[in-house]
Amino acid sequence: MSPTPRPAMEPRNLLFITLDQWRADALACAGNAAIHTPHIDALAADGVLFAQHYANASPCAPSRAALLTGMYQHNNGVVRNGSPLDPRFSNVAWEARKVGLTPALFGYTDTAADPRIHHANDPAMHTYESVLPGMEPVLYLPEKPHAWLAHLQRMGYAVGTDMQEVYRPKTVEGAAPAAPSNAPTVFAAEHSISHFMTDAIMDYVGVRRQESWFVHASYIRPHPPFIASAPFNTQYAPNSVPAPQRAASPELEAEQHPLLAVYLQNLKQSTFYVGGQGLVKDLSAADLAQVRATYYGMVSEVDVQVGRLVQHLKDTGQYANTFIVLTSDHGEMLGDHHLLGKEGYFKEAYHVPLIVRDPKTHADASRGQRFGGFTEAVDVMPTILQWLGLPAPRQCDGHSLLPICHGQTPQGWRHAAHWEFDFRSTWSPNAQDALGLGLDDCGLAVLRDHDFQYVHFAALQPLLFDLHADPHCLRNVAADPEYAAVVLRYAQAMLSWRMRSNARGLTGQFVGPTGLVTRA
């Protein structure tokens, strides 16, 4: 007798979108009236916007390690771009495979391979952009995205493979611009890397309408170079975007802390736009306004692609079965504190968007809500796993946000956000040598709640900002005698956080006379 066939299971799809270098306030649904992001706003209206969400590390590789393993930096060990991710740790891709899903990667994960299991001549030892173990790279787009460059060449663009030339403004012929401009890219918006990747994802899910799938869509924009395709390059006038929050001069800003002074004296404009000359701190007010306007244009350009992808899911009947998480790996200073990029300890480099959209009916009551409690990147992996019906590994430092999406705030929810930043020098110079510090002296950790932001350094003086009196963190009061008790209280809270979140490993298991005992 032949076995009775199993009834067909309804597909359960998971779309995990990461946007690179996207600030939390660069969304209209987050309260920014100057920016136009209708498609991501619509996604937020159909899910939950986590308004106080923070990356746990910076730059790219450390932030993604925390996001993809659910572990704080001090536990996963990925401190800089190029820090290997220890293969003993699980990750969201390995876990998802336990329910029969093949996590498909479009983009990149910035995961450095383990040198203990690779020969020195292995190509994996010459890049920090290997693929997260467990991910299937359907469309791999690292820093030099050959698949997209080949596409541009097929479209007739003579761009070669030099990324400086690929992103050289269209209006400049052979000469580098002397200042930021609103000139467009040489390629049309429909040929951008974001459009190219979105097309590939749509093709992938379009032929899997009766199957469950897991797509990790890792968009690189609005990561620099700061340049947008037409018409997004002129969508925002420089005088229409909010002004940066900063001290009256770079010199006054530098007085805040030695680490900040190092970055102000070394951060180059050429890191952020093709042809840049001089230091970021020397950008004129007009040039910085143009950078900010261009960044807004890049944001709107990616917003359109997210909209195309979501609409495709609706058109193919898959939206009703698709769980969507949209977030960013880290933020962008965008001229605040006279900085660009994501180095340092300021909120702007860590406060990022998070939208979670659960298609199930028991999430209906929370659709369109803003959750004001603190959430962190380490919460994303447990959230995804719970939706897939999987427990979070004990290694995870975060907690599932799914109850919040169903209208329930878990008891004892965190009252602060935490992030870490390591500024040691590696294959790429950093602040370590300039400050005369040892390799393991170059860490900082931040604890931020609604009242204060406390920054603790391994070998430098701490910082404290009174967020009621100084919401933009312009005045360090750590040495003010009136705040001595506050510094002590926050230093103790930081220590308690580190102790509670120490790497767990087998600490929840006990072997004794009654056999193995496991405690949650």
TrEMBL record:
Coiled-coil annotation: which residues? none
Keyword set, alphabetical order: Hydrolase, Metal-binding
From which domain of life does this come? Answer: Bacteria
* One Pfam family here: Sulfatase
Q: Which InterPro entries match?
A: Alkaline_phosphatase_core_sf, Sulfatase_N
This protein's GO cellular component annotations are: cytoplasm
Tell me which Gene3D superfamilies the record gives.
Alkaline Phosphatase, subunit A
Ribonucleoprotein keyword on record: no
Any GO molecular function = sulfuric ester hydrolase activity
Cited SUPFAM superfamilies: Alkaline phosphatase-like
Q: Where is the Sulfatase N-terminal domain?
A: 12-389
Protein name (Swiss-Prot/TrEMBL): Sulfatase
Q: Name its species.
A: Rhodoferax aquaticus
